[in-house]
UniProtKB/TrEMBL annotation:
GTP binds at residues 17-24, 86-90, 140-143. SUPFAM superfamilies: EF-G C-terminal domain-like (SSF54980), P-loop containing nucleoside triphosphate hydrolases (SSF52540), Ribosomal protein S5 domain 2-like (SSF54211), Translation proteins (SSF50447). The gene is fusA. It is found in: Cytoplasm. PROSITE patterns: G_TR_1 (PS00301), G_TR_2 (PS51722). It comes from Steroidobacter gossypii. Residues 8-303 form the Tr-type G domain. This is Elongation factor G. Keywords: Cytoplasm, Elongation factor, GTP-binding, Nucleotide-binding, Protein biosynthesis. Its main location: cytoplasm. The keyword Nucleotide-binding applies.
Length: 718
């Protein structure tokens, strides 16, 4: 089947922004104006779960009014095919932005006209920098109270280190936002109403434009008075991209045409020399079609971006694969959605043609996959297709071996495409099924969620037996359990993981123990003399046999060590393992008939229990090395909070415009830290944590831990 849309006519774009900047509303308007939808649903109308926007179709998204999972939709504008991915803005779901940006050729970064550059805008911008994704900026919500276009442009420059280039200027703001000045065409576009089908009226740019349109606010009039200044800046910047136009302008004073400016804007955007800035109000239906024109005019087709890099098994670059139908097939699985009915694997096709029934190689895992159903996704709707070509974003149904980040390719020309980089989880909780009977079903559902989301980690705590789920934030983990309930019909319960405390003792002691048991028939006898000595932190356990003259036969000495190793796992204070001590077997006695390996094992266990109680036992807690990176404005709050958590500040380091505070903090004090830190710093701080060492627990804290541990141990088992 021949190609229906030329590769140069495809735009794979993402809509990215901070939470609540208007990404989903903008996507809804895009679908309406391109004819893919005949109605518009607003985000705030979905919380009753009776209706949903196209891309926020999950129950969790409707309830919270936020995007949780990136959704793909395809549409056409000016005979160009636009594949749009609406991504989440909440920091807990950065993984969705990460993997979307990895497979997109361009992005529209939406900014709230009031708030400007927000913390997650910074995170997403850095991700786009990492993947080299060209961007245009769309300053949304110009109708909101406090909206300020120039302040937002200034924040893009200062906070993101970008080079914003306004190609539009707002006409009015807040309640009096009427439209925009198109600096390329030098026309004023004015909407007479907020109706979704209202068409802007074009006005000539004249000195009395502000008076004509009833613009009275001084700052809004100033923008219109400076139109020539902004136009001049646009022309000068564009001429940097076009030597011939620059020469004509300098020699003959030839002003570049709108078409020349558009070509230069496209070149500058694709090379990331600058970022065109547009404005509008998606909710009030102003500026969306102009933004679509900018997507077509300025953002790259698959043929405009660098060829995808290929790597070896260790991730080292070893070549590239060009975006063309004539190359062998290669695609990247960038997302897996699992539900009760199977897996849906989203794939960006980078080269070649993929047809239904083909057998392909998963080169990342060395496994073969048979291509069954292929679909083009329109949010949750799956439309069957027979083939996919370079530049397409599609979904494959029920692949058995493929996970996020895997490469699918033609087995006769195997390659591994450049992998994605995933953030490390920052928070962990214990999880279990609400009903014990659902244990197997719950475990399977958890496994599927982890397979679909590389920012989730699952492990079993060997000491506590708890199932520990790690993720990007409390909301991330909460939504994961909620999705297990709605998608797999099994309820889970979330708790805090138990801190792995340790016990040790503070003074040496020698203890003698005789194990003697006489019942009918053969008896039991063993006597041991053991000296216990504390060691430095981290030394572990050492055992030494110092007996002489065969007082304890050599064949029974390993049983003494075995008994000690078993008993040290069950401490005397709160039943946590005992660490950092040395045990010296100094003497003992045995009976020719009644002694055996088991009797010496029992004697060693009892000797340990008796001795440790008299040796000043204490509780130890894991202490973490924590590095908190924060803007300087919040440094005092961050340090104060660490001190309240029994933390010790080690050092402060400069990290660009931020400051990294290095400290050691007990693990038990770190639960809930990420939420508190984000609240304290408006979401602008982050932290990393790793194990450092064990330290004694203060007595008041130890008393509580011991009491709770003993209470839990004596509680009847469910």
């Amino acid at each position: 089947m021949p190609r229906t849309t030329a590769l140069a006519d495809i735009r794979n774009i993402g809509i990215i922004a901070h939470v609540d900047a208007g990404k989903t509303t903008t996507t809804e308007r895009i679908l309406y104006y391109t004819g893919r939808k005949h109605t518009i649903v607003d985000v705030h109308d979905t919380k009753d779960l009776k209706s949903s926007t196209t891309t926020d179709y999950m129950e969790q998204e409707q309830k919270r009014g936020i995007t949780i999972q990136s959704a793909a939709v395809s549409t056409f504008w000016r005979k160009k095919k636009i594949n749009v991915i609406d991504t989440p803005g909440h920091v807990d779901f950065t993984i969705e932005v990460n993997r979307s940006l990895r497979v997109l050729d361009g992005a529209v970064v939406v900014f709230d006209g009031v708030a400007g550059v927000e913390p997650q805008s910074e995170t997403n911008w850095r991700l786009a920098d990492n993947y080299g994704v060209p961007r245009i900026c769309y300053v949304n919500k110009m109708d909101r109270s406090g909206a300020n276009f120039l302040r937002c442009v200034d924040m893009i420059k200062k906070r993101l280190g970008a080079r914003p280039l306004p190609v539009q200027l707002p006409i009015g703001s807040e309640d009096n936002f009427k439209g925009m000045v198109d600096l390329v065409e030098m026309k004023a576009l004015v909407w007479e109403s907020d109706e979704r089908d209202a068409v802007p009226v074009a006005h000539e740019i004249t000195p009395d434009l502000a008076d004509k349109l009833g613009i009275s606010v001084p700052s809004d009039r100033k923008i219109l008075a400076d139109i020539e200044k902004f136009r001049s800046e646009l022309v000068d910047t564009c001429l940097e991209m076009d030597d011939a136009a620059m020469e004509a302008y300098l020699n003959d004073g030839t002003v570049p045409s709108a078409e020349t400016l558009r070509k230069a804007l496209r070149k500058g955007t694709i090379t990331s020399a600058f970022n065109p800035v547009l404005c509008g109000s998606s909710y009030k239906n102003k500026g969306v079609t102009q933004m679509l024109d900018a997507v077509v005019d300025y953002l790259p087709a698959p043929t405009d971006v660098e060829a995808i890099k290929t790597v070896d098994q260790d991730g080292n670059p070893n070549g590239e694969r060009k975006s063309s139908d004539d190359e062998p097939f290669a695609g990247l699985a960038f997302k897996v959605i699992n539900d009760a009915y199977g897996a849906l694997t989203f794939v960006r096709v980078y080269s070649g043609v993929l047809t239904k029934g083909m057998s392909v190689m998963n080169s990342t895992r060395g496994k073969r996959e048979k291509i069954g159903r292929m679909v083009e996704m329109f949010a949750k709707e799956a439309n069957p297709i027979e083939e996919a070509r370079a530049g397409d974003i599609i979904a494959l149904v029920s692949l058995a071996e493929t996970e996020t980040g895997d490469t699918l390719c033609d087995s006769s020309a195997p390659v591994i495409l450049e992998r994605m980089r995933f953030p490390d989880p920052v928070i962990s909780v214990s999880v279990r099924p609400k009903n014990k009977a659902d244990q197997e079903k719950f475990g399977a559902a958890l496994g599927k969620m982890v397979r679909a989301d590389p920012s989730l980690y699952l492990e079993t705590d060997r000491e506590t037996g708890q199932t520990i789920l790690r993720g990007m934030g409390e909301l991330h983990l909460e939504v994961t359990l909620d999705r297990i309930r709605t998608e797999f019909n099994v309820e889970g319960v979330m708790g805090q993981p138990q801190v792995a405390y340790r016990e040790t003792f503070t003074k040496p002691i020698s203890e003698q123990y005789v194990h003697k048991k006489q019942t009918g028939g053969s008896g039991q006898f063993a006597e041991v003399w053991i000296t216990f000595e504390p060691l430095e932190r981290g030394a572990g356990f050492q055992f030494v046999d110092e007996t002489v003259g065969g007082s304890v036969p050599k064949e029974y000495v390993p049983s003494v060590e075995k008994g000690l190793r078993m008993q040290m796992e069950d401490g005397v204070l709160a039943h946590f393992p005992t660490v950092d001590f040395k045990a010296r077997l100094t003497d003992g006695s045995y009976h020719d008939v009644d002694s055996n390996a088991l009797t010496f094992e029992i004697a060693a266990k009892a000797c340990f229990r008796e001795a440790i109680r008299k040796a000043g036992p204490i509780l130890l807690e894991p202490v973490m090395k924590v590095e908190t990176v924060t803007p300087a404005d919040y440094l005092g709050d961050v340090i104060g909070d660490i001190n309240r958590r029994r933390g010790m500040i080690q050092e402060q380091l400069e990290r660009g415009t931020n400051i990294a505070v290095v400290s050691t903090v007990p693990l038990s004090e770190m639960f809930g830290y990420i939420g508190h830190l984000r609240g304290m710093t408006s979401g602008r701080a982050s932290y990393t944590m790793e194990f450092s060492h064990y330290d004694p627990v203060p007595k008041n804290v130890a008393d509580v831990v011991i009491e709770e541990a003993n209470k839990a141990r004596s509680a009847p088992k469910a």
